[in-house]
Specification:
The chain is mainly alpha-helical. The chain has helices spanning 2-7, 14-30, 37-73.
C-alpha cells in the first residue's frame, strides 16, 4: 500500500494554484479588445435612457393601479 501512495502525483499547494490562476487571468486580460472611450460613453447613455424610460413606465403603472384601488375601495353601498 505504501507504494501506491508514492506513485500518486501530488497537486501543488493552494498558493501555487492561486498564483497560476492569477497569472492566467492577467494574460487573458491582455488579449481582450477593450472598447474605446466614445463607445463606452454611448453605451452608458443608452443604458441610462432605458432605465429612465422603464422608471417612468413602472411609476405610471403604479400610480394608475393605486388610483384604481382608491376608486374601488371608496365605493359606497347601494342603500346609503
Amino acid at each position: 500500500m505504501a507504494q501506491k501512495n508514492d506513485n500518486k502525483v501530488k497537486k501543488p499547494n493552494f498558493f501555487v494554484r492561486m498564483g497560476k490562476k492569477i497569472k492566467e487571468t492577467f494574460s487573458e486580460l491582455k488579449r481582450v479588445t477593450w472598447p474605446t472611450f466614445p463607445k463606452v460613453v454611448k453605451a452608458t447613455c443608452v443604458v441610462l435612457v432605458v432605465v429612465v424610460i422603464f422608471t417612468v413606465v413602472i411609476t405610471a403603472i403604479n400610480y394608475g393601479l393605486q388610483e384604481l384601488l382608491n376608486v374601488v375601495t371608496n365605493i359606497k353601498g347601494i342603500g346609503e
